[in-house]
Amino acid sequence: MLERLARIRDPELHRWLYEVISVAKPSSVYVVTGSEEDVEYVRRAALERGEELPTKYPKHTVHFDGPKDLARDRKNTRILISGGGSIPLINTYDREAGVREVLDIARGIMAGKEMFVAFYCFGPPGSDFTLYAVQVTDSAYVVHSENILYRSCYEEFVRKAPGIRYARFFHSAGERDENGWSKNVDRRRIYIDLEGETVYSVNTQYAGNTVGLKKLMLRLCVYRGYLEGWLCEHMFIAGIRGPGGRVTYFTGAFPAGCGKTSTVFAADTVVGDDLAIIKAVDGVARGVNPEVGMFGIIDGVNPADDPEIYEILTSPDTEVIFSNVLLTDDGTVWWRGKPEEPKPGINYAGRWWSGRKDEQGAEVLPSHPNARFTTSIRYLKNLDPAIDDPRGVEIGAMVFGGRDPYTLPPVEESFDWVHGVVTKGASLESEKTAAILEKVGEMEFNPFAILDFLSISVGRFVDLHLRFGEKLKVKPKIFGVNYFLKDENGKYIADKVDKKVWLKWMELRVHNDVDAIKTPTGYIPVYEDLVKLFDRYLGKQYSEERYVKEFSIRVDRYLEKVDRILRIYSQIPDTPPQLFEVLADQKRRLVEARSRYGSIVSPFKLDKS
């Protein structure tokens, strides 16, 4: 193993590895080069050490995190700042004290264990977009996950060292109990050192806390983008086909549970399902997907609504790591969404059977709402070959989607880049989900769907987008979508499949192929255009009655939303003045519309733009 490290001629890397080995005291070190032999060794280690369990299919495995380690931990995830400074809405801690604390917890934490050292690219090799990372962990499950989700880059380190810049991730699951779960979750820490581009994660196994290149890398990437003037986003990249076979690339940001994954699969081609790096190249916004895998919520995935991903997850030939699902006694993986009833087996809480209750008397669900799958994006039939293009793809549109049952229409185009950044991205709100360790069902402010992963203030992140737009000769159009609008009876108005139509309309608007109606808050579709699109792509009729329900401007509700957003940003000192100006203009237009049309404004009362 020493020979493998010696090939990377980077004294700083060797020094850091010596330090973490001295602290954690593993019994051995395995350097992962990305060879098939190494990949298979990691797979086998995950099974032999009980971090993953076998199923009836050879490359399907199941991992359990334990009942107290099932989601990201907001409380103990902190951005480390020199001098102990604070960032509004972000959990911070003094850098010196934080590093000292986490290294103290980590002393001897790998005793008797094997340490893995693995090297990855966060983007296509040889691309100006790509970042690099080193993962140190005692978890074969973490390395197995990263081998699926990212490109192994050991040889890139060999070629580029010592001139390669990279992030560093140190992780240990800590002491594990008889079930294989992290035992000392009360000493769980996820500390992100921006200055040192290093993340420390201990006493946890949940992938959102441990897989370094996922949401931990996102925070480092956001900070680096801020310093260098580009965007690192919690966004998918997907292609929508338009007239003449053209493909227009969209990025999309949605909080958890708001339709991000289903939007990806409604697209015609997929570049990436979760993260994007976007830079201005010769005045054009271009983006890459830094990943090659998918780490998605499996709860609710079913053959009727999600046929392609369901086929991938149930095929005997795919490689999939399932987490916190039900593993039945016959080796079958079950989650909510499978047509058959669950059978007894093992799940995130231990032994499971129908009717099992926890210590508080509540029913134990067979599969957790935040259960996940990890698999290669290359299994997708509509994968866009541009996923490997080092130049990225040109971004034609950015879409922001939340879950709002009462206010926002299914789709709306902003007036321009600045208006879109402020009213669609910076004003995004939605409901909480099981992806965080708090109550579900409450509305929360989640600008750009990235609040949990920001390493700079929201105000600076908004300003970064405004400044980024100034670099562009051709600015992507910005849209807001809301698939969760309800009628007066509390029922969802739109079907799941309808997002195909909203995507096709947005694609036409990017190229100015259809007119739109100007409202106080943006541009909405003309009724006749939606009639044609629903018929062409879904074979459905689209009534005037439904159009009025979906696209009427609910002025009072929208004014409440504007006031909420203004209150939040008024407490964030570095919010750019433009945000307040844009929201004030929006409020003025809404008040004028109410005085002219009333509190509910039918789209048929408004004129085409």
CATH architecture of the largest domain: Alpha-Beta Complex
Radius of gyration: 24 Å
End-to-end gap: 66 Å
Which regions contain 5 or more consecutive residues with pLDDT less than 50?
none
Q: How would the global form be characterised?
A: globular
Major sheet? 9 strands, mixed
Number of domains: 3
**Helix/strand/pairing category:** alpha+beta
> How many distinct helices?
17
How many strand elements? 33
Give the CATH topology of the largest domain: Phosphoenolpyruvate Carboxykinase, domain 3
CATH C-level class of the largest domain is Alpha Beta
- Strand % is 15-25%
Mean pLDDT: 96
Supply database-style keywords:
609 residues; Phosphoenolpyruvate Carboxykinase, domain 1; Phosphoenolpyruvate Carboxykinase, domain 3; Phosphoenolpyruvate Carboxykinase, domain 2; 3 domains; nine-stranded mixed sheet; 31% helix
Give a brief rundown of this model.
The chain is an alpha+beta fold and 609 residues long.
Sequence-ordered SSE layout with sheet pairings:
Blueprint: H1 2-6, H2 11-24, E1 28-32, H3 36-48, E2 53-54, E3 60-63, E4 77-81, E5 92-94, H4 95-105, E6 114-122, E7 131-137, H5 140-149, E8 151-152, H6 154-160, E9 167-172, E10 189-193, E11 198-202, H7 207-210, H8 212-228, E12 231-233, E13 236-241, E14 247-253, H9 260-266, E15 269-272, E16 276-281, E17 284-288, E18 293-297, H10 307-314, E19 320-323, E20 326-328, E21 333-334, E22 345-347, E23 350-352, E24 372-376, E25 393-401, E26 411-413, H11 417-425, E27 429-431, E28 443-445, H12 458-470, E29 477-481, H13 499-510, E30 516-519, E31 522-525, H14 527-538, H15 544-551, E32 553-554, H16 555-569, H17 577-597, E33 600-601
Parallel strand pairs: 1-6, 3-19, 4-5, 4-10, 7-9, 9-11, 14-25, 25-29
Antiparallel strand pairs: 2-3, 6-7, 6-8, 10-11, 12-16, 13-14, 13-15, 16-17, 17-25, 18-24, 19-24, 20-21, 20-22, 22-23, 26-29, 27-28, 30-31, 32-33
Helix pairs in contact: 3-5, 11-12, 11-17, 13-14, 16-17
